[in-house]
Write a structure and sequence with these properties.
- By secondary structure, this protein is an alpha/beta fold.
- The chain folds into 3 domains: 274 residues, no CATH class; 259 residues, Rossmann fold (3-Layer(aba) Sandwich); 83 residues.
- It is built from 25 helices and 22 strands.
- The strands form 5 sheets. The chain has a 9-stranded mixed beta sheet with strand order 14-17-13-18-19-12-20-21-22, with helices on both faces. Strands 3, 4, 5, 6, 7, 8 and 9 form a 7-stranded mixed beta sheet that branches.
- Helix 22 links the parallel strand 18 and strand 19.
- The longest helix is centred in the N-terminal third of the chain and has 23 residues.
- The radius of gyration is 30 Å and the shape is elongated.
- This is Type IV secretory pathway, VirB4 components.
- InterPro entries: HerA_central, P-loop_NTPase, T4SS_component.
Length: 706
């Protein structure tokens, strides 16, 4: 019995089989299902219709499509679209091209009994343990005893790290070229095994009629010669050595673009083209549709007619790509926080001096030495009672940052930065963008796994850690939540994240809580107002990159207007967690991320909170906090100490009840002074005046002054 028996029966779907390097007519295990409609719906949810083309390309995917999250489905759909797109670029040449799933290649070779990491074509077998390498698509070309390798790295969703993607494509080509080029006995065995993989893939393509009946005839006529390993690894003259195909959301890509980098062609395609690539059969795309016209492909990237072989001596050897320590951080492109950062802006920060005001005695300007390399951190905290000029001062600081081309973010949960509260000069110099969250949900998920920094080692959260973090935010804001309810919330979130990853939503959480028989429904009722506010959405095209890389707005104000206090606090904490993750991934000392938080005493100041982490660890990630508060009385001693670590402090006239507290801060900040002296100076401050305590330049050197 062959696979044709199952394929001929239209009532069942051939999902998966274990082939173990046997002939195409002999299989050890075959998985089929009568629920054809179910699997067709799963594929359709990802924008596809050609269930057979999913099966033909990767025999393991379809079985797992039922349980994987939306992000994984989107990635796999992107790979299907990319292999069809890449095949259309090269199929009109005199080379016979066979698209392979790199993941499928390793899976099938693993069927002989090895672990995946020990399968024939895994790098672990060759003692390569780390480094960027593509695991998406490999186009294998056959012509006159020469074998061509064209790797295709695929990215779907947000703008990728192109440098890393190009490295991945080049490393796959380098690795397989080295593996198949040696004259050792092991290399000859690999050459034969590799051809067996290709032939098994061809069997699947023929079974599902993915290609025309005669497409592989020339190759199959000489398959015995290829199986003996009698071939050379070759490269094409005047054609890219690999491809990086990115299916990008409409907000970052409006039309196809093509650019070369390190010998690899970077292809950016709007997400709107992906459904057409996936839904049309490959034969239709190859023979009836004009892919060059649809995707605006330049003529030099359409491989047509006779091809030329690059001379061997002209080949440049590729170095092994080994990740630097910073490259070992988890990659946020499959479940990323929002979107990847764009090209870095010029380093204005290193020369930036933020003007605070004028010395009332000398008339000289007073600066926050923002860009000085010896500054321990770029945090500034403003103390003072209501109505003394704190908000006006913050606007002045942000104007100076804007003049230095540094974009800033204000999370406004106090309604202090509403449009009618902004100074005309501030509006003119920063062109602020007000993002009203209740009308415009922000593109993030509270359930996205964050990266945690453990002394320079970055580890991604496990589902139970995500659950603990999210539950902790709820528990901090809603102090009436009991231990039993917190335990239920932890269990529900952990289960949801295990099932759906970052695609898990607040609405999913609410639904799961309502299904709990004991504490769940009551807790769901308490959390429902946040869910109904619809403040976050994975479908939104707004991201932190839009805030800190904006060409039009030098300040962005996240407006939490119309939200009650508890929801505002929850929203702020979740935003800060996502911001911290963004900073860990894309921030640096040279690229500041200024964040303004007013009435900061209302937030979570625990060491493990996002604010606590930003205060203590934010410097190396570029985090620059501008904090304002009226009182410190509700904070514990250790929480106050973290606030006092800010290198610059501005103290406006305090409320009488806070005068002694602020005077004590000044005494500790300026050794050799006395609290009583500071109490007198604080009492003499008028509206708009403040004491500036921080490091100031004195003959080119930083010196603590007031």
């Amino acid at each position: 019995m062959t696979l044709d028996f199952f394929h001929a029966n239209q009532c069942i779907v051939l999902i998966h089989y274990s082939d173990q390097y046997t002939s195409s007519a002999s299989y050890d295990a075959i998985t089929v299902t009568a629920q054809r409609g179910l699997f067709e719906r799963v594929v359709a949810q990802s924008g596809g219709k050609q269930i057979n083309e999913f099966n033909a390309f990767n025999g393991d995917w379809l079985l797992k499509m039922l349980t994987c999250n939306d992000t994984i489905r989107k990635e796999r759909t992107g790979i299907i679209g990319a292999y069809k797109f890449a095949t259309c670029l090269v199929h009109q040449s005199d080379i016979t091209w066979v698209p392979l799933s790199v993941g499928e290649m390793i899976r099938v070779s693993g069927n002989i009994g090895l672990k995946m990491t020990d399968s024939d074509f895994s790098r672990n077998v060759q003692r390569y343990k780390k480094g960027a390498i593509s695991d998406d698509i490999l186009l294998v070309g056959f012509k006159e005893g020469n074998l061509y390798l064209l790797p295709v790295e695929v990215k779907t969703g947000s703008t990728p790290d192109y440098k890393k993607a190009v490295q991945q494509a080049n490393e796959l080509r380098r690795y397989l070229t080295e593996l198949l080029s040696d004259e050792t006995l092991a290399s000859k065995l690999y050459r034969g095994l590799f051809i067996r993989q290709v032939l098994m893939q061809i069997d699947k393509y023929r079974l599902y009629n993915v290609f025309s009946n005669d497409y592989f005839e020339a190759l199959l006529a000489e398959k015995e010669e290829w199986l003996r390993g009698n071939y050379a690894i070759a490269e094409l003259e005047n054609y890219p050595a690999g491809l990086v195909v990115s299916h990008l959301e409409s907000g970052s890509c409006f039309e196809p673009s093509y650019n070369m980098q390190d010998g690899v062609l970077k292809v950016d395609l709007p997400m709107s083209l992906l459904p057409s690539l996936v839904q049309h059969p490959l034969q239709v795309l190859m023979n009836e549709k004009d892919i060059a016209q649809i995707c605006h492909v330049p003529a030099e990237y359409m491989l047509v007619g006779q091809t030329a072989l690059k001379k061997r001596e002209s080949l440049v050897p590729l170095d092994v790509v080994v990740d630097k320590p910073e490259d070992l951080k988890p990659n946020l492109q499959t479940e990323e926080p929002s979107k990847l950062a764009a090209e870095p802006t010029p380093d204005y920060a290193s020369e930036c001096r933020v003007e605070i005001g004028q010395n009332t005695l000398t008339g000289e300007k007073v600066f926050w030495e923002y860009g000085h390399k010896d500054l321990a951190n770029r945090h500034l905290i403003i103390f003072g009672s209501s109505g003394q000029g704190k908000t006006y001062c913050i606007q002045g600081l942000l104007m100076s940052l804007a003049d230095a081309q540094i974009r800033s973010l204000v999370i406004d949960y106090t309604n202090g930065f509403l449009p009618n509260h902004l100074e005309p000069e501030f509006i003119e110099r920063t062109n602020p963008k007000s993002n009203i969250l209740c009308n415009e949900p922000f593109g993030m998920s509270p359930f996205r796994a964050q990266k945690q920094d453990f002394g320079g080692i970055f580890l991604e959260e496990k589902p139970h850690m995500v659950a603990g973090r999210v539950a902790s935010v709820f528990n901090k804001v809603y102090s009436t939540i009991g231990e039993r309810q917190i335990a239920v919330l932890n269990e529900v979130i952990e289960s949801g994240v295990q099932r759906y990853g970052s695609a898990y939503s607040l609405q999913n959480m609410l639904d799961d809580l309502n299904e709990e028989e004991t504490a769940g429904p009551a807790l769901a009722s308490k959390l429902a107002p946040l869910v109904k506010s619809n403040l976050f959405s994975s479908d939104s095209d707004k991201s932190w990159n839009d805030v800190f890389e904006s060409e039009h707005h030098r300040s962005t104000i996240m407006q939490l207007a119309s939200l009650n206090h508890d929801i505002s606090m929850l929203c702020t904490e979740f935003l800060l967690w996502d911001l911290y993750s963004y900073a860990c991934s894309y921030g640096s000392k040279e690229k500041p991320i200024p964040i303004v938080l007013d009435e900061v005493q209302n937030l979570d100041h625990r060491l493990e909170s996002p604010l606590g982490k930003m205060l203590t660890e934010g410097r190396k990630f570029g985090v620059s906090l501008i904090l304002a508060t009226q009182t410190l009385s509700m904070l514990r001693k250790d929480e106050q100490d973290r606030l006092f670590q800010a290198c610059h402090k501005l103290i406006f006239a305090p409320a009488k009840t806070e005068t002694k507290t602020y005077a004590k801060i000044l005494e500790l900040s300026m050794p050799g002074t006395k609290q009583a002296e500071w109490e007198k100076q604080l009492g003499d401050l008028s509206k708009g005046q403040c004491l500036s305590v921080g490091y100031h330049l004195d003959n080119g050197q930083l010196k603590m002054e007031c």
